[in-house]
Amino acid sequence: NAAARGSALGRARVRLPHALDVEETRITPGEVEAELGRIHEAVDTVRAEMHDLRQRLHGALAHEVGEFVDLHALLLDDPELLQGIDELIRTGLYSADYALRLQRDRIAAVFEGMDDAYLRSRIDDIDQVIGRLHAALHRREADLQGVAGEILVTDNIAPAELAQLQAQGVVGVVTAGGSPLSHSAILARSLHLPLVVGATHALLKVNDGDVLAIDGATGLVVLEPNAADLRAHHKRVTEAKRERRELNRLRREPSRTLDGIDIKLWANAESRDDVTESHALGAAGVGLYRTEFLFMGSSELPDEETQFRAYRDAVIGMTGRTVTIRTLDLGADKADKTGLALRDEPNPALGLRGVRLSLAREGLLRTQLRAMARASGYGPLRALVPMVSGYEEMRTVRSALDAVLFELRSEGFEVAEHVPLGAMIEVPSAAISLPDFIG
Length: 439
Known about the structure:
Blueprint: E1 2-4, E2 7-15, H1 32-56, H2 61-76, H3 79-92, H4 96-112, H5 117-120, H6 123-137, E3 150-154, H7 159-167, E4 172-175, H8 183-191, E5 195-196, H9 202-205, E6 211-215, E7 220-223, H10 227-250, E8 266-269, H11 272-280, E9 285-289, H12 292-296, H13 304-317, E10 323-326, H14 354-360, H15 364-375, E11 381-385, H16 391-410, E12 421-423, H17 428-432, H18 434-438
Parallel strand pairs: 2-3, 3-4, 4-5, 8-9, 9-10, 10-11, 11-12
Antiparallel strand pairs: 1-5, 2-6, 6-7
Helix pairs in contact: 1-2, 1-3, 1-6, 2-6, 3-4, 4-6, 7-8, 11-13, 13-15, 15-16
């Protein structure tokens, strides 16, 4: 299946699956504690791997890849996964390996029964976490070293591995499993790394060192291409280059449908480099400027001046195009080094995070709003509030923002007459009470 556009020609690197086709193995009651110790040690090992990987991420990929790493870390702490494994070992008297397989199959059955294709594809994330745990149980290295010019052929691929492999020169990936809707496929498209998924016979037919030609736009995989295959590959590459040149030429043209409807394309950004690239590619503005990077990379909370300079540079960098800056969106799933966000909440997605965290920490929101308001003096700026659950939160933020604007004017700062304020509708309560927001 096609998953990420692009054509690649390279040597095959076959990685056999971390097989979970383990045989049923029973243990004696006296071996239970030892098996529990094995699986708990494996969990600790993988948790440390996730943390180390998160710390190694830098630059533009820090957020995009980091979100997938954070998701896998959350799955690793899911009580449904861990308690189920423990129970299978304690009461079923299964080995840690077989308990891991049984629990994986239980969870997979739930996902496979879902009607939504996107939700069904989330089993890939479960399998990637389970694969790491299985590797840790046997003290295998989970990471894969790639070689320039290779095309990886494997059962499945984790998002963080894609970024690592591309940096090492791997030119494409073919997986026997996976889905075009998986997180790995989403990231591969962002990285412009050709990816073919669902090539069910690839692991049976391809050997290390074989030459492959793959087309991520059609899902074509050619083993040992002949002259005609090579000509077709080079034609695809030439056409892709021509298409990129054409798109580059059109980047300043309006985004308009055939029936004359204008559609503005906005960019996501979290750094000056992101803003520069967005401007160069002709974005209508920055639709989401994430501020978490200022908090997550430092052991101290960024002060008003530090934040102001970052927001000001983003506004200046877009040369008159609107920049939408989101207030802090930290939580237990994206905990910072300062300890501002709690790390041990039972449900980090719904706990003290986003606007609730900003309102709960004295001075945190005010400092950020002052920095944003000061930056509004340099160009059009909008403020966006994450994880809003009700109208009262927005009213509180609006009052705080108005007070900050008045305060800064009295101090002699040049600020916008009005800073538009918006809410991210992400939780059910906000969706239900939407008429209150817009009424």
